[in-house]
Design a protein that fits this description.
Chain lengths: 131, 131
DNA sequence: AATTAAAACAATAATGATTACTGTTATTAT
DNA sequence: ATAATAACAGTAATCATTATTGTTTTAATT
């Protein structure tokens, strides 16, 4: 197996994700780092996001909007997608800890995990509404 | 608003989905109906899958594998994705009914729903294993 | 039953996200 | 320092999906 060498681009991508909680897409990471790396390539961003998520240093979120989002916070937590503005927020809720084992006990195969995300309207988008 | 007219292709697409529980992709629907409609177009399949799911007559499942799956069973139920063979199965579990309102009560916006799917190994893929 | 307007079709082009390839540069071991 | 190779930038290719164009069905009206 190839030895992984250091790269400032990869380091910057990881730092970029850790420094924010808005779950950017590959394109947003690319745009956000262009000022620091003027000839950064989108391919480099994609490759390193894949490397980092494969190593478990970041999370790849597939939220069903057709675009992958990335999260520098690898602690287990829940996500909310606003149907108004599309933003992705973290949720502070517990109560899903036993869900995997509950499901597993009702299934003849082996259930090892689950993906859950919530949707609705975020606080901002709820404000400008009457209904 | 345009009046929806009858089409045998759309009817066949819906029947195809109702007749199975393996949650096919657009491409699988297309291939499955080619024998009955030799000059069926993939565009027609996509358009009608979108029409049917917009009307709520079928479900579009975005399971994170980059391909949309479709389900003729619109009753609320849970899904399981096998990481061994990729197949998508229905799960008979309840206990998630109150999840949306639980989450909503902890959130300052408005949560109206959630998406949950489970993953692991299906019964078949569990068999041929030692670990 | 013929006419007609619009929906649906087939075929295919276009799009957008992601992945793969090619030649160059940077990192690390010798 | 030199050499080996991982990582890079740039770009081409891929894949699922959506949009477009011209033709055919459907269904309402004469």
């Amino acid at each position: 197996m190839a030895v992984q060498k250091y790269s400032r681009q990869r380091e910057a991508i990881k730092e970029f994700l850790i420094g924010r909680t808005d779950h950017p897409t590959a394109d947003m990471v690319y745009l956000g780092l262009l000022s620091k790396f003027p000839n950064l390539s989108l391919g480099t961003v994609y490759r390193n996001l894949t490397l980092l998520s494969d190593k478990g240093e970041i999370l790849r979120l597939r939220l069903g909007d057709g675009v992958d989002h990335f999260d520098g916070n690898v602690m287990p937590h829940l996500h909310f997608i606003c149907q108004g503005c599309g933003r992705v927020m973290d949720l502070e809720i517990d109560g899903l800890e036993g869900l995997t084992s509950l499901a597993d006990s009702h299934f003849s195969g082996k259930i090892t995990g689950h993906v859950t995300y919530f949707y609705g309207k975020c606080p901002d988008c709820t404000k400008g509404e009457m209904s």
